[in-house]
Specification:
Pfam families: TIR_2. Helices cover 36% and strands 11% of the residues. It is of the alpha/beta class and 423 residues long. Helix 12 links the parallel strand 8 and strand 9.
Length: 423
């Protein structure tokens, strides 16, 4: 099969650097999942690269995913940005290596480097940063490259560049490493440019979602063939999960945006029509997207009452409307909200615009996960079966003691891994 056609914008001349990081779950009460210190670091690094660089016309300084327009196809936009970038700058943290989304960005860029050819040409195009230090029992070969940025600054290995960015007491060290990183980016981009080329999409480099996902996005919306009388069919499709409440302003169905949010937070996700998702909703955290027009059909109240009865605490509903829609859905939104309350779901959120939908989603995914951890079923631990002795190695002599392999012996004295932001 021939590779996909590269439909890059003719005026694109590349980008100095692509910043990659592990999205962190928002703290209680917050709505956006973007780490403010990542944003601050991106702005500081962009200023320093701009100060040192001599960019050609049309070349951008930097990119990170908060630049993607709200209604865009996130994965397609990332693939395009990865194909434009000269230098890939991953912010390594313990969470980075457990986030398929962040690792997918890195693997996509590495695949592009491999296609470019020699190691001499590609040297320096992947420049990692130690963002948050790792616990001593976690080892990753990639960390050596990240530590190389500040081997002469002892606090860098101990505290990471995020602490430098946050704390005024580290200002001198922060500016030193910021200048050093910008210098490496500029040198690589201007002396050994790759030029724009195709980067594989995240779906090409990330392992497919498992059959049993970590998270579910269920959709309760009419299909195009079963709309209430006089309802505008724009935005509806043959399946509820393909519903686009904001029409042409969004490139993907609303459920796909919600699933992408869960994936960026490290959860494998699946979208489904509500009617087909019943089994999953009993045992997996979920966001339920509700179109209030579902309540406009005759006998809808009785039908919905039966459908919604027994929903679990970890199914978090969001009633989705569009303030720009000429057909007012306020009546139906009020009615469906009351039906959700009657079904035992006290916290029902509402999004009335695309920005509000996007801003709410990280907090809703996090809340569903929190409720699942609090109320979800407990899976009993089953110890692995006794290993079968290998005939190749022979059985130990009778009465002898078998010494366990030190590499396979668990270290019971190791402390528990800490949990924290961006980890």
């Amino acid at each position: 099969m021939s590779p996909p056609t590269d439909r890059r914008r003719p005026a694109a001349r590349g980008t100095y650097f692509f910043l990659s990081y592990a999205h962190s779950a928002p703290p209680p009460g917050a709505r956006a999942d973007a780490d403010v210190w990542v944003g601050q670091f991106f702005a500081d690094l962009s200023d320093e690269v701009r100060r040192q660089a001599r960019p050609v016309a049309g070349m951008r300084i930097g990119f990170f995913d908060q630049h993607i327009p709200l209604g865009a196809d996130w994965k397609a936009a990332l693939a395009e940005a990865l194909g434009d970038a000269e230098v890939f700058v991953p912010l390594y943290s313990p969470g980075y290596f457990s986030r398929p989304w962040a690792l997918g960005e890195q693997e996509s860029f590495r695949a592009r480097l491999a296609a470019a050819g020699s190691a001499r040409l590609t040297a320096g195009h992947l420049t990692p940063v130690l963002w948050i230090p790792f616990p001593p029992w976690e080892a990753h070969p990639e960390l050596d490259g990240a530590l190389d940025l500040g081997r002469d600054v002892p606090a860098y290995a101990e505290d990471g560049l995020r602490a430098f960015c946050m704390l005024a007491s580290y200002r001198a060290q922060y500016e030193l490493l910021l200048s050093r990183l910008a210098s490496r980016i500029v040198h690589t981009a201007e002396r050994r440019p790759l030029g724009p080329s195709r980067a594989p999409g995240l779906d090409e480099v990330v392992r497919p979602a498992p059959t049993d996902p970590d998270f579910v996005v269920a959709v309760l919306a009419p299909t195009r063939d079963h709309l209430p009388t006089d309802r505008d069919p724009a935005g509806y499709a043959a399946s509820g999960r393909l519903w686009r409440p904001y029409g042409r302003r969004q490139e993907l169905p609303a459920a796909e945006y919600a699933a992408s949010t869960a994936e960026r937070l490290g959860l494998s996700a699946r979208t489904a029509d509500f009617a087909q998702a019943a089994g999953l909703l009993d045992r997996r955290p979920a966001v339920l997207l509700v179109d209030p027009w579902i309540a406009a059909s005759p006998d809808a109240a009785a039908i919905l009452t039966g459908m919604l009865h027994g929903l679990r605490e970890w199914v978090v509903p969001l009633v989705v409307t569009d303030d720009d829609d000429t057909q007012d859905a306020s009546r139906w939104a009020t009615e469906v909200t009351q039906l959700l309350h009657d079904a035992g779901l006290p916290q029902v959120k509402r999004a009335c615009s695309m920005p509000e939908f996007v801003d709410l989603m990280p907090a809703l995914v996090t809340e569903a996960r929190r409720q699942f951890l609090k109320y979800g079923p407990v899976v009993p631990f089953e110890p692995p079966p006794e290993p079968v002795p290998s005939l190749r190695d022979g059985l130990p002599p009778a009465g002898s003691t078998v010494t366990p392999d030190p590499a396979s012996t668990p270290d019971d004295s190791a402390p528990l891994r800490p949990h924290g932001e961006n980890r």
